[in-house]
Design a protein that fits this description.
about 280 residues
């Protein structure tokens, strides 16, 4: 075991040194790998300044995973699964970050719309209300509201600033909010009444989305348990019959079977996630 750890550490260090010299080329490759995701990160104001660094570590992990599993552990078929899981990891993580940011903005829009209706009822203009609510709201919505006010103060019409934010975020709650505001700004109408109506609509939308999340929570837990079960079963097999488990892991047939189990678990997990991803 000590020899494996030492050799793995040396391999990782060698790969790290080699990767530093080829960092520029790898940055170009990884920029194309996440090219369809980075615009969404920018539109949601997610910081991606450290993304090239993390993608370099990801590249090192790709090589290290193959070398360690294929040569150190002597399991070439399983190395294919290890490399693939490491390969898809960045996109899964970035997609999770995007969904989480959208959910936070969705929830914050409800409170912000109610607060904005109160400022309008108190006699403040829409721009003043956006500034007040932006100072009182937590991130990330606060940054979006401050951005609208900043553009308005620098000469951009308020309706254009709101429309640009709507097109950039592409979040249903902000789309409903902006639609009601833009109608009042461009065709006339009471901003206070529009904000009160849209706040009730957003509360109902939030209630439905949270109900869907609660309804699918039990299914999601079952998916996680079933996905982790093969790992638990393998560990239990090693505890009860270590010699037989080692023999299976070091035989070609056993490694192929393990590869098939990993593949089935992974694709079943992804398929179940698509089934449980109910859209309102």
């Amino acid at each position: 075991m000590a020899a494996i750890l030492i050799s793995s550490t040396l391999i990782f260090a060698a790969v790290l040194l080699a990767w530093n010299s080829a960092g520029g080329v790898w940055d170009d490759v990884t920029s194309r790998y996440v090219a369809d995701v980075t615009p969404m990160l920018d539109s949601l104001s997610l910081d991606r300044s450290k993304l090239p660094k993390y993608l370099r570590i990801w590249g090192i992990s790709l090589v290290a995973a193959f070398v360690i599993v294929a040569f150190v552990l002597q399991m070439p078929p399983v190395a294919l699964a290890a490399v693939y899981l490491v390969y898809v990891a960045p996109r899964i993580i970035l997609t999770f970050m995007i969904r989480r940011r959208r959910a936070v903005l969705r929830d914050q829009m409800v409170t912000a719309t109610i607060a904005l209706a109160n400022t309008s009822r108190a006699g403040l203009s829409l721009a003043q209300g956006l500034e007040t609510v932006g100072n009182e709201t937590q991130e990330p919505l606060a940054a979006e509201l401050r951005r609208i006010v900043h553009e308005y103060r620098h000469g951009r019409p308020l309706s254009e600033a709101i429309r640009a934010t709507k097109e950039r975020l592409k979040i249903e709650s902000f789309t409903l909010f902006s639609a009601a505001i833009l109608v009042c700004l461009e065709r006339g109408g009471r901003i206070t009444d529009a904000l009160e109506r849209i706040s009730h609509s957003l509360q109902e939308l939030q209630r439905i989305e949270r109900k869907l999340e609660v309804d699918t929570a039990s299914g999601t837990k079952v998916v996680y348990i079933l996905t982790a079960f093969p790992v638990f079963f393998l560990f239990l097999s090693y505890v009860t019959n270590p010699e037989g488990t080692k023999m299976m892991l070091h035989s070609l047939l056993g490694q192929i079977i393990l590869l098939v189990v990993i593949a089935l678990s992974y694709f079943s997990f992804r398929w179940s996630q698509k089934i449980l991803a109910i859209e309102v």
